[in-house]
Design a protein that fits this description.
The chain is α+β, with helices and mostly antiparallel strands and 98 residues long. It contains 3 helices and 4 strands; from the N terminus they run ββββααα. The protein is elongated, with a radius of gyration of 20 Å.
Length: 98
Amino acid sequence: MPRGKRNFDNEQPGTRYGRRVVLRTETIVHKMTKYVGLWVRCDCGREDLVRKSSLVAGLADKCKDCENAEREQIMRGLKLGQPWAHRRQTAQTTNLPH
């Protein structure tokens, strides 16, 4: 297979990348560049058109809603366990004026 044409192969509907499932393919032309776009559905139900290269590289394996929810859980200490929540609680009690 020629090296430059590998990304333009047809992607089968139903292929899973992380939390996303491929629905159909579409060609995206932006100025002088041609991309392979994939319509995908996230596990949360959101549908997006993403570049196949980003999906295969793992840069777009979840939608922005899921990514923001995961980031929020990490900051609240729900995903990494109690260290973050414990630090926040300790900081709130130790910084109170006497």
